[in-house]
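Entry 14. Two folds queued back to back today. First construct below, sequence then structure tokens.
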Amino acid sequence: MSKRLNIGKLGTACVVWHILCAAAVLLACEPILWLQPEEQLMPPVIAGHAGQIIATAVACSVFVLLASCTYLLLKLRNMRALITFLNWCMIWLISGYIFTEMAIKADPPPPYEYNAERPIQPTDTVHLPNENLTSPSALVIAIDPEPFDGSKLESIPNLQLLESEHEELLATYLEQAPRWAYADKSDIFYTKPGHVVLVPPARGGIPGTVHATFRTIAEGEAMPSGFIPVKPGDDFPNPPTDKEEQPDIALELSGKHYLLLAWRGTKHRETARKAINAAIAAIDSRMQKLAERPTMETLERMCKGKGKRLGSIPELHLIEPNNQYGVYQAEVYANTGRAGTMLLAIRDSEENMLRLFSFPARYSSNPNEVFRHDIPGDVSDWLIENFQSSPVGNFPHGAPFFAIKAGSSHQYFNVSFELQFSPNGTDGAQTETLLRRHYKVQAYENPATE
């Protein structure tokens, strides 16, 4: 009886140990999946050693499994050894499922990889331009439709407060905010570059996105073609037939400003409505700071965003907003430690220069922080003026997006992005290559030239 009790205690202890190890692994995955450097709620040392914690926990669990199974086999407890192994498999299969759900929900950006030497060879890593941007100019916003209901339109307390009590300040923000100021004024804005796209997580099937922009419609002016005017709290408008997509809506802000929202993707009504409500909530929440402190200082901070974060390695992030083919946005995070000029050169595989961006380096003496540089937001005026004469120079002056070259959309090619630094006083004779990364991109097809 004593031996049986000891064997039973051993099995229970092993199960508890494996559960603790699996829990440690899942907890250590949090800083990898969710916590961005500027948002970390724990010391960077802990977050930086998350991989070591995961490896140690898995190794300890495997060691305990082997030791317990070996002991049971030597005691001729073959069935108990099999049960111990099956318990271990079940615990880690459940943990793997939980991790998969966490990863799908977090949707982390691709890991930074240091760069191959040019020219681009078939063996080099070529990335897709789908990294997350964090600046106020980012035209892609991630949303989660799950918590939202699809029966009535969400409320917009912050936008309505600004519209009713601080209309001039709201109008100024929409004219200056990089995210909203450069949207095309066409009624079919979701086919044009510059509008905001709100993207729910992919869950299989036909994907979908919400396209959004603000529009000023004075009294007596016609509503944009195809848009149905609605108010917060109203029922969602129904399409004429069940086979049609969710109608485009113009959400009234109780004044002359409207928020235009268009769903593109699956025709599943509930999916579309929940995503639209998630988009409304995400946009309204970004206006909370201005609603709580309606001052020009708040507006300026919202337009500039957070300029630095923890880190020491230069980073480049590139994205092509959904349904804005051949249009790109980029951010560079770097700290050169001294004054100078940074160059971002975009070349094709034959080393032909396609784009060249030049901007002053932001820096400090702290080696553990990097500064955000928006591309093309910090481009020199003379360089922007030069771009205006290019085949793709029809974008608004100062717009936070760019095209790499003119041509036919959906014809993809590989390019290299090379970030260089030239210290002040060297006249460009001394340059340092900070990073090089390769991307698969496409040309911008200018509708005006068709």
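Second construct, same run, same settings:
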Amino acid sequence: MHASSIYRTPALTWLALTGLTLLSVELGAWLPAADWLPLLVALIVWCKGMLVARGFLEGHRAHPFVRHLLAGFIAFAPAALVFTAFFGERLAR
């Protein structure tokens, strides 16, 4: 395997993560009061988690049980973000 192909996936993953981070910062600056912004941020967080799992952890090559466990773990943070954004007062009680 050629050295450039070894680094291609992590480099592209890193670039995508950087782009998504910059996108989320810009969305927060452009649309600070949008009601649907937490949903979009949660989607970006989920995409970033999936990119890390695939690009760095190679979760797509894991046993199906581990792959599903990893997908559930990745989905937890965006779900918590959405629940606290829309139901924060109820959850705090």
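Quick look at the second one. The mean pLDDT is 91. DSSP finds three helices and no strands in the chain.
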